[in-house]
Write a structure and sequence with these properties.
Layout (H helix, E strand, L loop, with lengths): L14 E5 L3 H11 L4 E7 L10 E7 L5 E7 L10 E2 L4 E2 L5 H5 L2 E5 L3 H12 L7 E5 L2 E7 L5 E7 L5 H18 L6 H30 L2
Helix pairs in contact: 4-5
Length: 217
């Protein structure tokens, strides 16, 4: 069982990196349309083995000391493959579209005003917003960048509660149990989750009692 109080030393995303075959359009989308400044680049000439092309690795500031990066390899042509997907992963026609769309980057903003400002910028560009959705605790806008990557900007509609964190951990523990077993289905997951709730109820009650006793001292 995961301990929600367990500490770690990670401090968020340093950068996420993707390849691009169109660096000019990539810079136009992220720097000129969205306003994410270029903050670092690496000109890599002669790196790697003899057959490794020269490349440039460039970074955009996406806030909170986080960066989005791209690799452009000189002389490398787009790969052959299926007709679906982005410039790197070319999926065959029979791959479900929902599976392809699940691969995406989401960037957080603080307010509805911020979200709508980014919508305005995108709608005035070559990459207008394709959908705006409220789901559970967030509201998001979506489009595809010039490379075919699914791109999301999102804001919180409300804080996530400790109870929801607890529920998430129960769900994931149940999922891990189910996918390593013979019956992989949503019904099996919900059944296992109910079993875990029953198994852990006594421990939760004891934790709450201990908290009350500590508060009354």
């Amino acid at each position: 069982m995961s301990d929600l109080r367990q500490q770690h030393n990670a401090r968020g995303v340093d950068h996420v990196a993707f390849p691009t075959f169109d660096p000019a359009a990539t810079v136009k989308f992220y720097r000129d349309v969205l306003g994410f400044p270029v903050v670092h680049s690496i000109c890599a000439a002669g790196w790697g083995p003899d057959n490794h092309p020269d490349f440039i690795h460039f970074f955009f500031d996406i806030g909170n000391n986080d960066r989005l990066a791209f690799f452009y390899y000189f002389g490398l042509e787009p790969f052959e493959g299926g007709p679906q997907g982005d410039s790197y992963a070319r999926f065959a026609e029979d791959v479900p579209f929902f599976f392809i769309q699940s691969r995406h980057l989401a960037i957080h903003v603080d307010s509805e005003e911020d979200l709508l400002e980014y919508r305005r910028r995108l709608d005035s560009s070559e990459w207008p917003v394709e959908m705006q959705v409220q789901h559970e605790t967030i509201e998001s806008i979506y489009t595809h960048d010039p490379n075919g990557y699914m791109f999301e900007i999102t804001r919180a509609l409300r804080p996530v509660t400790p109870q929801e964190d607890l529920d998430a951990n129960l769900t994931i523990d149940a999922l891990v149990d189910v996918v390593t077993g013979p019956n992989i289905s949503m019904d099996a997951l919900l059944t296992r989750k109910a079993e875990l709730i029953t198994e852990r109820a006594a421990a939760w009650q004891q934790q709450q009692q201990n908290k009350k006793e500590m508060a009354n001292r």
